[in-house]
């Protein structure tokens, strides 16, 4: 089921999430719904707070960037990926810049500097403990979604000057004036369906 994606300004996006305690049919349904929602919105990552849930959970699917992986010679892990109770245990000293966007902040794209590589410990969808190293675009997407489960948004990484330049656009989104091709939920307005 496609879920509405919570927009900037909703309280859920600013809450640090709680660990998932156990596997359940409800959790597996949430994972399925999040993957379906991410695909319907043409996103490459989605965190539980973006659909109003406060579990430490996010999903990633970078398969639309398969060509980039082929060019780099790095094999792409099976997609989509599920990260439960993730903990970044190490990050590279080398940083890189890349333009990011967010399904909760439609039509806003800005360059963000992040560590180029990371090591992350997490539970996969089957609740197997994993510890993996990722770099490049996959590391960036993971860091972006990991921020969400800590109540952090990519715009928080921008300079105060950049945020001031975006102030009016961000205020429009907070007030539900967002040009999204997927259902969104705005604070005090409820669900807003995309215009046909």
Number of domains: 1
User: How many whole angstroms does the radius of gyration measure?
Assistant: 16 Å
Helix content: 25-40%
Mean pLDDT: 94
- Please give the oligomerization state of what you see: single chain
Could you list the spans in which at least 5 consecutive residues all have pLDDT below 50? none
End-to-end distance: 19 Å
Strands of the biggest beta sheet: in what spatial order?
2-3-4-7-8
* CATH homologous superfamily heading: Peptide deformylase
CATH fold type: Peptide Deformylase
Please state roughly what percent of the residues sit in beta strands, choosing from under 5%, 5-15%, 15-25%, 25-35%, 35-45% or over 45%. 25-35%
- CATH architectural group: Alpha-Beta Complex
Outline = globular
Biggest β-sheet strands, sense, barrel: 5 strands, antiparallel
Per CATH, the class reads Alpha Beta
């Amino acid at each position: 089921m496609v879920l509405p994606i919570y927009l900037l300004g909703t309280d859920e996006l600013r809450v640090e999430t709680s660990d998932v305690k156990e596997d359940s049919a409800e959790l597996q349904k949430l994972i399925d719904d999040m993957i379906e929602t991410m695909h319907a919105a043409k996103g490459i990552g989605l965190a539980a707070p973006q659909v109003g849930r406060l579990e430490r959970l996010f999903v990633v699917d970078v398969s639309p960037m398969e060509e980039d992986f082929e060019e780099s010679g790095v094999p792409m892990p099976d997609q989509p990926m599920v990260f439960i109770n993730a903990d970044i245990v190490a990050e590279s000293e080398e940083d890189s810049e890349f333009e990011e966007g967010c399904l909760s902040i439609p039509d806003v794209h800005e360059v963000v500097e992040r560590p180029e590589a990371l090591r992350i410990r997490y539970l996969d969808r089957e609740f197997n403990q994993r510890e993996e190293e990722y770099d490049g675009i996959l590391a960036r997407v993971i860091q972006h979604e990991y921020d969400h489960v800590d109540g952090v948004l990519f715009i928080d990484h921008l300079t105060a000057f950049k945020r001031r330049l975006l102030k009016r656009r961000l205020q429009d989104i907070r007030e539900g004036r967002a040009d999204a091709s997927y259902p969104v939920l705005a604070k005090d307005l409820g669900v807003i369906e995309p215009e046909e």
